[in-house]
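USER: My hope is that you can spare some time for a protein that puzzles me. I am handing you a single protein, as its sequence and its fold in C-alpha cell form. Walk me, if you will, through where the backbone shape changes along the chain. The protein I mean follows directly.
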Amino acid sequence: MVDRTLAGPARDRILGTADRLFAAHGVRAIGVDRVVAEAEVAKATLYAHFPSKSELVLACLRLRADELRDRLTHIGATVPAGPERIAALFDAAGADVDAPAYRGCRFSNAVAEHLDADPAIARLLEEVRRAVHGFLERNAAGVPAARRAVVAHTIQVLLDGAKVASVTEGAAAFEAPRQLAVQLAGGMEPAARTDRHDG
C-alpha cells in the first residue's frame, strides 16, 4: 500500500484511527493491522511514527490526558473555587456519556486491560491520578487542611466508580456520587443510613 499523504497528516490519521478503535473495542482487541487498514497507511509508516503498539497506545492515552488537563484548567478558569468546581467535574464526566462509542474512563480501562504493565503507561496513569487528586484536594474548601487529602481520595473513588457504572447506567450514574462529593468537599458529613437491619 502506498501512502497518499505527507508524514504529518499520516501520523495524525494513524493516531486518530487508533484512538477511535481503542476507545470502541479496547486496546487488546485491536491489532496494528486493523489500524493500518482503517488509517489507509503502510505498516512501515505506522512503525516510522510509532515503533511499537505500546508507543501508539501511549500516544493515544496522552491525547486523553491532555484533554483532561484542559478540562481541569477550563473549570478552574470558569467556575468559582471550591465544591462548585468538583460538581462541574462530575457534570463534565456525565456529559462524556453522549460521546460516540463511549465505554467509560479510558484510564480505568487501561488498568483493567493491564496496560500499566508498561512502565511509561504506568507513569502517565499515575500523573493523571495525581492531577485529578490535586484538583479535588484544592477544591475541598470546606474540609480542614489535615483531612483534605483523604476526602479528595474518597471523592476520586466516587468519580471513578460513577464512570464504571455509567457504561450501563448512562449519565444518571453520576447524580448521587456528585451530590455526595459536593457534600464531602463542603465539609458536610453524609446523611446516616436509617434502614438498619438486625440479624
